[in-house]
Amino acid sequence: MNAMITSTKQPTILVVEDEKYVRESLTAYLDDIGFTVLSAENGQAALELFHRETPDIVMTDLRMPVMDGFALVEALAAESEFTPIVVVSGVGAVDEAVRAMRLGAWDYLSKPIMNFEELQITLEHCLERARIKQELERLRRHLSDGTLGDESAFGSIITASPRMRAVFLYLESVAPSRQPVLISGETGTGKELVARAVHNLSGVGGRFVAINLAGLDDTMFSDTLFGHQRGAFTGADRAREGVIRQASGGTLFLDEIGDLSPGSQVKLLRLLQEGEYLPLGADKVQRSDARIVTATHADLKSSMVHGSFRPDLYYRLCNHRVELPPLRDRPEDLPLLTAHFLAKAAAELGKPTPVAPAELNCYLAAYRFPGNVRELESIIHDAVARSGSRTLPLESIVAAIGSDLQVNAVSAQGSGLCPVCPLGETFPTLKGAEEFLISEAMRLAGNNQRLAAAYLGITRQALNKRLSRSG
Question: What is the rounded radius of gyration, in angstroms, for the C-alpha atoms of the chain?
Fold first, then answer.
């Protein structure tokens, strides 16, 4: 029988049994499959032990002196709705089992216990039910009150976006579960920062280890993740510890999971299913207790349809899943991020922090930012590096942005969409339509001619001529 425990914390079970031989036999078996075992000979002693130690699961006989199993089940169920209780009833005593279930027991086994595989499956099932029940309660509580228990865990992520706040609330509720988390989002949206926050919130003592899977073939994947023994291949003159071992008791972050080759997907699936892996050149299977967090910018569902990503691996990875919004959908974050990157770049370059011109936010809000936060930081850093005055020059920012500007990005800030039609009660003339469009473009651009020209699809010089002609 394989050991059931793969997490850093062994579950604690309280065994309540008045027959010493049975109690000791169960204790030895449960200890062998990975439990920390507490034991008591009657319900009263068990209740006292429960208050002191708070076990993860309780297994109790029903007929005992001092305080029987029925009274114990009722007392425990009243105190903790998240602690599984498994009762052991005599063969054929179905009525006793039913009574115990009505009092709050989660499952039952027949006595004497002869099928230890059934015992293990029953305990695993109850622990999984308890885990899911606790996660749902955490999620319900977080989403209902909207407050983060640990604001500092997300301190490295600068945002005022309600959508990002919703992501934080969800992740804080699922972080302790140790189940895989899949983070999707465009390049540069901060997926690794979010993964680190999940690690910090999980409360584990191990390290956070990150690796980018892009470009790794099957051999490099196995060697990087699982390591190798000395002599495993030509040039392997000494053993190498894989990153999965380095992340023991912590979190392994696998970035660009969508680029994983089919062969490597099979190996990762085994790690997730069994908690086992085999270093190159080794003949002994190793066990892992690292929590797996993955990230991708790709559409994994589409990859499944096209046969390049395994469905069974996808459903293992997305026990918990979040999608980070792109920067263009977070306009309220632009002033915050811009100020942060201005100060950061100035400190790195040994310059005083320049003052951002008033029209900078108009330009940034009208840009799509395909590279998201990472691209914004790069643009600001380059502008600060080129700056020789106290005011940040716009030339390098305008050059970086180019003509890829959108009116709808500005309207998202509350300016309102341009009401092109109807222009009035009668059909407009070309001259009237032109004047109206120029007026609306200038209004949306805050009277910035370069930006208004980009909206209209003409050059700044052409716009200037039309403005001069119309007076």
Answer: 31
Q: Do the Cβ atoms of 365 and 332 come closer than 8 Å? A: no
- Listed in sequence order, the residues at least 6 apart from 247 whose beta carbon sits closer than 8 Å to its beta carbon are 206, 207, 208, 209, 290
Residue 1 lies in a domain: no
- Cα separation values, 291 from 198, 223, 247, Å: 10, 19, 8
Q: Which of these, 373, 204, 407, lies nearest to 291 by C-alpha position?
A: 204
Is residue 7 assigned to a domain? Answer: no
- Per-10-residue mean pLDDT, the chain, length 471: 46 92 91 92 93 93 90 92 89 81 90 86 90 77 70 89 91 87 95 95 90 90 86 74 90 94 92 86 85 94 92 92 94 92 92 87 86 95 90 86 59 43 58 81 83 83 83 66
Given 81, 113, 138, the domain boundary residue is: 138
Beta strands in 72-133 (DSSP E): 85-90, 107-111
Helix or strand or coil: residue 10?
Answer: coil
